[in-house]
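U., I forgot to send this yesterday:
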Amino acid sequence: MRIAAFLVLSLAPLGQAGSPGHFVPAHRVSGIGVARDDISEDLLQARTDLMIQSQTFGILRDPLALPSAKRITSNEKLQALFRSASARSGLPASLIEAIAYLESWGDARAQSPSGPRGIMQISEATAHSMGLKVLHATRYRIVKERVQLASTGRKPKYRTITHKIPYTVPGRDDRMSPDRAVPAAARYLAAMEQKYGGRDWAIFAYHCGQGCVNGMIELTRRARGIPPGQVSVPRMFFSASPSWNRELYEAVQQEMQRDYSPTYYFRVKRAEQLLALYRRDPRAFEALAAEYRNQFASNRAPHRLAVWLKRDDLVFHSAADIRANPGGRLVPAFDRPRYFGYALQLAPGAPSSAAQSAIGTLAYVAFETRRLFEEMRPAGEEFRPLPVTSLVEPEEDVRQSGRPEALAHSSGQVFDIEISSLAPGELECLRFVLNDLGWEGYLGFVEDGRDRLHVGCSPGSREFFAAVYHEALAGPSADEVEGQESPGVRQDAHIGELQ
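Result:
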């Protein structure tokens, strides 16, 4: 699994990127954290492309992704509906098809617990606005109740009362008919495109609703750093920053917590690409789907680490394996909290080593978190080196502990950050950086309870983070930075590409 990684090199020579105060890597991922504040058109396109690619996990981790791709592309009646709806609405048939694929896996009888129904998963309120009929009939059931009457005698008296309890039963529901639902959804999307002046906003509105999009567009228009005429969904998403456009950032976070709707546009674009791949090369699609299959359970993968780490990666089965360190896979973690921005707080006797890529990822996450924190300057807080509570762990110990999420530690590619003791501002910075890198496909993370995060980089970015590790290894010694203050971060110079 390889990703195209767009990175920025600083003005410092490779291997000497550290400052006297703290580690500053020369290898940089463009537009992350603080660097979101100045995203060029080229960088926006690069980030958008990576964001679209990162949606592969959310789609292909589901066991239905493969059979549904076959069903939706080979069903002649559905394909005729998509083409007809395209001709009438002016939208690409591939777009309409992709939404049907994402919303229902092409199942005309699909029903969501939250209310939407049919192949296009249309809510009842939206169905009415589309001109679709959703009818209900009222029925009554008879309920008899025995009620005690007031009585002056010793023997109680009762009376039976009959109640008619109304209930509704579904009648005609056009949402369940693809013949009606598909063209109605296409007309709706076309109307939204005309209303908002962009297909990206129309797709966003399909998932989030018009009220939501109205508010998000207004916030995006008011946001700093967005050129006039470039108010788009990608600009909205990548300009939302806690240090730059706080109001927009909080609005995006609210919608992400509700239903991830700010990422819907990117998911639809990836679904289009995946269905095109299936048509062009079904075997390539099958191979890609296999990469995202959960090897540790029969259900869909709960997070990215579950698909990135395969059984063959879990090589450290015992403490003896860690001591033997086959192939020299493990290296000692740097233990200079002030310089690297993280502090080892491992259990007594726990290994203080991990893969080069894991140490590089840790150093890079700490670097980005600290510079975002310094930009935000949360009131009443000082940056605290991120507490690292676990690196490599033997598989036998993890299994005995009953912590299934920690099994990934036996690969040497994962580390834990304790978050329960972090101040709110620093925790917000950390989460923002992890999400930023995660959406670009560089790393994955998952919460273990409420106290810690498991973090690991993607297979395709291990080479990049190993290079960061080697930069850190070649940096100044502890004596050279003793007593020095941390200067500002160097300015970015140019964009490169790493395969």
